[in-house]
């Protein structure tokens, strides 16, 4: 898996993989883990693992924080 550590304001962030981006988009659409799994033809446990990695890479602990962080980052790109 490709990960690139970069520094922004002293905080390290990691680039999301293509699959993590797919899962992220579906999470932000309000899809449940099982729905995402069916859509991407994955097991629910695999989707949960992607979700955990996304949260870790972006430094968030819940979906509200995730949505807020993504919105903030899009404003600056």
UniProtKB/TrEMBL annotation:
**Which InterPro entries does the entry mention?**
Sig_transdc_resp-reg_C-effctor, Tscrpt_reg_LuxR_C, WH-like_DNA-bd_sf
Tagged with keyword NAD? no
What is the protein name for this chain? Helix-turn-helix transcriptional regulator
What terms describe the molecular function in GO for this protein? DNA binding
Domain HTH luxR-type: start-end pairs: 9-74
Origin species, per record, is Dyadobacter sp. 676
Key words of the record = DNA-binding, Transcription, Transcription regulation
What is one GO biological process annotated to this record? Answer: regulation of DNA-templated transcription
- Which domain of life does the UniProt lineage start with? Bacteria
Pfam families the UniProt entry points to = GerE (PF00196)
